[in-house]
Amino acid sequence: MKNVHLAAIGVVICALCAACSQSVSPTSPTAVPGGSLTGASSQALADARSGAAVALPLQGQFEGTATVTPLDPPFAQVVVSATGQASHLGRFTLSIPHVVNFATRSATGTMTLTAANGDTLTASFTGQSQIADPLVTIVETATVTGGTGRFADASGSFTVNRLFNRATGATEGTLEGTISAH
For tag attachment on the chain, is the N or C end more exposed, with fewer CB atoms within 10 Å? Predict the structure, then answer.
C-alpha cells in the first residue's frame, strides 16, 4: 500500500514538473503556456493595445446594512452601506442611495463601488422586490455611468441580486455583469 501512495505522489510531481517546464517569455504579456490565445482573447488584447474598450466580467458579493427613512407615502429613502469582494475591484465599499416606492415595490437610484485604492465605479439602476416578511428579495439592474481612476470612462451593465432583512437591517448580495474600460 505504501508503494501505491509513493507511485501516486510521483505521478503528481511529474505532472507538476511538466506543467512548470513550459517556456514562457517573461517579457511577453501575450505568451500562453502550451498553446495560443483564443480568438476572443486575441481580440481583447488587440483592443486593449489600440485603446478600444475591453469588456471584462464583473462578479462579486457584498454584505452590509440598509437604512430606511420614510418619505411621503408610499415612498422611502434607502441607503445601503456595504463591503465586498469583486473581480477587477478587489475589496470594495458599496453605497446605494435610492428611493423605494412601496406601492409598486420598485426603486431607482445610484451605486458607487469604491476599490481599495480609491478608484470608483458608478452606475444608475432600477430595482424590483418581492416581500416574504421579514425578508425582501431584490433584483437591481444597473447601467455603468463611469467612475474615476481606471474606471473613468467605464461603461457596461450588471445585475445585483440582494436579500434585505427588514427586522435587522442586514443586507447581502451578489453582482454579475460586464464592464468596459479604456
Answer: N
Contact criterion met (CB below 8 Å) for 60 and 85: yes
CATH number, domain 54-181: 2.40.350
Domains in the chain: boundaries? 54-181
Whether 155 and 175 have beta carbons less than 8 Å apart is answered as: no
CB-count exposure of residue 40 (10 Å: 0-12, 13-18, 19+)? exposed
Instruction: Tell me if 178 sits within 8 A of 156, measured CB to CB.
Output: yes
For the record, the C-alpha cell of 31 comes out as 505568451
Distance in angstroms (rounded) separating the CA atoms of residues 18 and 22: 7
Q: State the 10-residue block means of pLDDT for the chain, 182 residues long.
A: 39 36 34 35 44 85 98 98 96 98 98 97 98 96 97 96 97 97 74
CA-CA distances (angstroms) from residue 127 to 73, 88, 101, 117? 18, 24, 10, 29
pTM (predicted TM-score): 0.72
